[in-house]
Specification:
449 residues; Rossmann fold; five-stranded parallel beta sheet; globular; binds glutamic acid
């Protein structure tokens, strides 16, 4: 590493931390990228000269707004809405909306920053953004969700558009919320602008496989990592956290490829089903009835529910953290390693702490960071945008084929970049470097903006 690259990275990090005080998740996401790319800067001094990093860590635009709404009791409620439009060098801003009480500006910035590189890795011409609100959809009626969503969109719609910024779902934002948000946009603008939102219902412009894509993609990525070692998913046991969209479809794909996924979790605990998770039952409980995961154990004799504790106590060959940020710490990592884990792929965004990542890498466990492993969701969003622009609808099979090809491409770009920049087998360095170079080249070409 050249002294000037080291100094630049240090200065950029220190300045960004001082300028964005009190945002630890954003600092963590910055550090992970900046720690990876010193060898890239050594190859490309022109990036330093053009101030690429200094510009990259500062969002192009940040929108924070009041979201007033009335609950079913007629009481006024106020939430805070966010959209951080981080970087649009490669295409319109693109990234999900998260509705969860933990949401704050720092969380949205970490997600938006990661999204830049994730989206670059997909090679689908999409910039990076994220948004959301500290609204908690849990135990809210459909009418409350609708009133909140309409109020949220009444401000956000000014900043969206198919060539400007295209949101999608994330934690707490699924088909129901996207329907209400899209409906309000259509009403306010008098435009049925399909390409301004992804994750839409398949009957009104949504893409096949979008619902499944993040979970499926994470398993495809795992398959690619194992294939490099001459191994596969068949016959393997997988431990999965979460019970949302990502977890459900990761479990489904593991089983389709001959593996056995035996766990799922939520904030109240986790289930273990040594016979293999019954995906239809899990979907019924989570997607249709919107119940807790403990309900699964009530209805299936091979399963048990453990309240508290950690899903990472359960032995498995493959671990797919698919719940939320920093859910897997160093202690969990050592437990998984001791229990013989061979591959970890992040279905969620930044679910492993830096210490956990370090532990996996030191132990020689194949480790796929979220921005590579979970990019299948946003990649399929880009396929949705293509279909909307062409007024076409692709079938499930061809859409899944495209997803698989994209995941292979992300794997090989990450794998090759890790080699090129002197860290063979390190998918963190590989994904960060490959994504960064694409964005940096586009920024360089487009001048000082
Ligand atoms: N929220 C998802 C992510 O973390 C999907 C974003 C999208 O489809 O725009 O990548």
């Amino acid at each position: 590493m050249t002294p000037s690259a080291t100094r630049t990275l240090h200065d950029v990090y220190e300045t960004a931390v001082a300028r964005n005080a009190g945002e630890p998740e954003f600092h963590q996401a910055l550090r992970e990228v900046l720690d990876s790319i010193a060898p890239v800067l050594a190859h490309h001094p022109e990036y330093v000269d053009a101030g690429i990093l200094t510009r990259l860590v500062e969002p192009e635009r940040q929108i924070i707004f009041r979201v007033p709404w009335t609950d079913d009791a007629g009481k006024v409620q106020v939430n805070r809405g966010f959209r951080v439009q981080f970087n649009s060098a490669l295409g319109p801003f693109k990234g999900g909306l998260r509705f969860h009480p933990s949401v704050n500006l720092g969380i949205i910035k970490f997600l938006g920053f990661e999204q830049i590189f994730k989206n670059a890795l997909t090679a689908q011409g999409i910039g990076g953004a994220k948004g959301g609100s500290d609204f908690d959809p849990h135990n809210r009626s459909d009418a409350e969700i609708m009133r909140f969503s309409q109020s949220f969109m009444s401000e956000l719609y000014h900043h969206l558009g198919e060539h400007t910024d295209v949101p999608a779902g994330d934690i707490g934002v699924g088909a129901r919320e996207i329907g209400f948000l899209f409906g309000q946009y259509r009403r306010l603008t008098n435009r049925h602008e399909s390409g301004m939102f992804t994750g839409k219902g398949v009957q009104w412009g949504g893409a096949e496989v979008r619902t499944e894509a993040t979970g499926y993609g994470a398993v495809y990525f795992t398959e690619e990592m194992l294939a490099v070692k001459g191994e596969g998913i068949d016959g393997r046991t997988a431990v999965v956290s979460g019970s949302g969209n990502v977890a459900i479809y990761a479990i489904e794909k593991v089983q389709q490829l001959g593996g056995t996924a035996i766990t799922a979790s939520d904030s109240s605990g986790y289930i273990v089903d040594e016979a293999g998770i019954d995906v239809d039952l899990l979907k019924q409980i989570k997607e249709v009835e919107r119940h807790r995961v403990s309900e699964y154990a009530e209805r299936r004799s091979s399963a048990r529910f453990i309240s508290g504790g950690s899903v990472w106590d359960v032995p498995g060959d493959i671990a797919l953290p698919s719940a939320t940020q920093n859910e897997l710490n160093e202690t969990h990592a050592y437990r998984l390693i001791k229990n013989g884990v061979v591959a970890v792929a992040e279905g969620a965004n930044m679910p492993s702490t830096p210490e956990a990542v370090h532990a996996f890498q030191q132990a020689g466990v194949l480790f796929a960071p979220g921005k590579a492993a979970n990019a299948g969701g946003v990649a399929t969003s880009a396929l949705e945008m293509s279909q909307n622009a062409a007024r076409q609808r692709w079938d499930f099979e061809s859409s899944e084929d495209k997803l698989r090809t994209i995941m292979r491409g992300i794997h090989s770009a990450s794998y090759q970049a890790a080699d090129k920049y002197g860290k063979p087998g390190d998918y963190v360095v590989g994904a960060n470097s490959a994504g960064f170079v694409r964005v940096a080249d586009a920024m360089l070409a487009q001048g000082l903006i």
